[in-house]
Amino acid sequence: MHEWALAEAVVEYLEEKRREEGWSNVKTLVLGLGELQNVDREVFEFALKHLLSQNEVKVGKIILHLVKASFKCRRCGGSWTLDDLNLDEDMREAIHFLPEAIYAFASCPHCGSRDYYVEEGRGLVIEELEVE
Amino acid sequence: MRVREDPRVTAARRRLKEIKVIVPVVSPKGGVGKTLISSMLALILAERGLRVGLLDLDITNPTAHLVLGAGTQILPREERGVVPPIIHGVKFMSPAYYSRDAPLVLRGAGIADAIRELLAITVWGALDVLLLDMPPGLSDEMLEVMLLSESPKPLLVSTQSLLSLHSIARISKMLGDSGISVLGLIENMALTPYSPFKDRYEELGLSLLAVLPFEPGVEEAVGRPGDLLGSGIALKLRELVAPRIVGLA
Questions:
Q1: Which of A24, B137, B224, B233 is the most buried (most CB within 10 A)?
Q2: What is the ipTM of this complex?
Q3: Could you tell me the pTM of the whole model?
Q4: Which chain B residue shows the shortest CA-CA distance from A118?
Q5: CA-CA distance, B140 to A42, in Å (whole number)?
Q6: Nearest C-alpha neighbor of B133 from the set B246, B43, B198
Q7: pLDDT tens digit string along A37-82?
């Protein structure tokens, strides 16, 4: 599953930070899961816990929260969310793997421009890291 | 502490470290044949038994799938990431799989995001060579490659034009200043079999690997890898350029 690659990325990030900064363990790890990428939360969480169980980096508490996707048009200044778009399953699947694919399928619902940006909720982000 | 960091950079770097040689195929101007050359080199190296990948990094305008006749129907397989389909012996990855070949309008930040995503999730496995079909010029795509891979070996493609020569000098300086050594340079669509700029390339420290003539029949072979491999250009790439890459792998 693609979620495994994202979980691997988090674990590799923690390993690298530990080497660079010299801390021992993570007390709390807060991850934001962007709505646009539509990661399967259960699969991702399972993969992350499994990979961490085989790793030297120990994480006390993992908090995952969904970040609602929002978009803003550079041309007209309009804002919208995923709920305002009409994306079929095929498009959603493509966006799941490559969130930027949304620019191929959707334009600003207010003025039709493709020159917009994802304000929040694109994909996986490490939001907080409390270490000891 | 609040960090708001992107774990994909670490993952992309790790995956690229597992590849012996990374060759971005770069040119100062568009329409000089980068996609044809990178695709044909990938096919030639695979033919020689190397484990080869080709990644189309022309994010907003990918066309390598058309050269390989790959279409976008056979999608990468999900297995702890995404595993690229093998097209004529080449592991081939492209944003076109996901954009469904529709126009993908992106500014710089979006391009960087797309590249990081692709490099973080693509499972290449053990590769001897990864060729990168780059968009023209020096911009976000090349900066991302330089950020994420330790020692890429760019292959420059140019034409026998003074403007291209000027731009090649710029690219060469930028890469040299960044500590990146260039694999060499190919003159494509040449009007004469001998480069008029040979001395200038030497002054720039660039190795001219091949002068490829304009070959009208190649256009008709686009989408048919077997025919591409039988072209005169393929013969020259096989003799003059492929051994240089094999030597690094």
A1: B233
A2: 0.92
A3: 0.94
A4: B110
A5: 34
A6: B43
A7: 999 999 999 999 999 999 989 999 999 999 999 999 999 999 999 9
